[in-house]
Amino acid sequence: MLLANYNLTSIVNFPTRTTHGSCTAIDNFFINVSQNYSIKPLVNGISDHDAQLLVLNNIIRPTQKLATFYIRDYNDYSIHEFLVRLSMESWDEVFAGNNTNIIFNKFLDTYLKIFNTCFKKKKTFTPHIHITLG
Q: Which residue has the higher pLDDT, 3 or 127?
């Protein structure tokens, strides 16, 4: 009943293990019954356990496309440059105020200017999977 609620059914209807005159179906596939499929035993002759070959027709097939991403370039030189610039910055203007919000915003502005200068963004291309009907 539970499988039927999700439109699933067992499709292995042949023995997958044969030993000493007995046969059992110890393996099984459960698929959506609306799928166009074929299944058959794949007798390997190596053990008492046979494989199953499932062929799905007209299924959704993923394809890869390149997606553009931006990453920051971190290296020993850029990290050193960042630390040097932070240490050379005059923080007097930041700490001169008495309003916490203004102090934080000045600090963040100064910090981000140095950060963005030292750690440049680079464009990179990464495979991205899109699902298309096959």
A: 3
